[in-house]
Amino acid sequence: MSKKSTIQVEKVNTHIVSWLKEYAIASKTNGFVIGISGGVDSAVTSTLCAQTGLPTLCVEMPIHQNESHVNRGKEHIEQLKNRFSNVSNTIADLTSVFDSFVALVPNGDDENVKHHALANTRARLRMTTLYYHAGIYGYLVAGTGNKVEDFGVGFYTKYGDGGVDLSPIADLMKSDVFALGKFLNIPESILKAEPSDGLFGDARTDEEQLGASYDELEWAMLENEKGKTAADFSGREQIAFSIYRRLNTINQHKMNPIPVCLIPTEFK
Q1: How far apart are CA 236 and CA 240, in angstroms?
Q2: Which of 35, 132, 160, 227 minimizes the number of CB atoms within 10 Å of its CB?
Q3: Hey, what CATH class is 9-207 in?
């Protein structure tokens, strides 16, 4: 099932850029910092930020990174710097920091669980790095999550790539992000690449991790909003819908506010 975006890309582009600029001015901040992964989400987000005319810092944060991801990220940054004079970049190679962390913590009994825990650690080290740069320059950390990831299946790390100041593309489906990316002329290598979170140091795709493509998850998200259940479908549609429902359920802890234990008034 292939999902075609129906957004009016030029109007959406103008709207997001205006929103970003207005937010930055109202918050009395100086610009934006974005982590560049070599994927479409960070490429689109950084291009939107660049269009505000405010300082836009692109940060590469490799941790035993797959070479193809690094190359796509570099290609995008160079293109963006050539197009916008307000764009700058820096590299914070976190490999040695990550390796030092791994050497300090216990191995655990389950290798697969440890592997995923360390993947989340990569994301949290990057979040810390982005906020360091935001702190010294007075910038906002711009999030790169799209609607399917942030509000559909929760495909992000809590307090990792989920730790941001504002989310310019979080109301766009993945197909919308690709449509906007094409309009913004981001590198073709990024538009053609299979989406990957890059948290494992290899080239595994998001679809391999999730068990369904973004087109399928997008479709399932819309069907779920209509009140449909897995029983309404068969074959691959039923499988994709069930995957969406399972991920949406187990990742509610990311999408809902942190639980607070309220103390009864008479106890105070």
Answers
A1: 6
A2: 227
A3: alpha beta
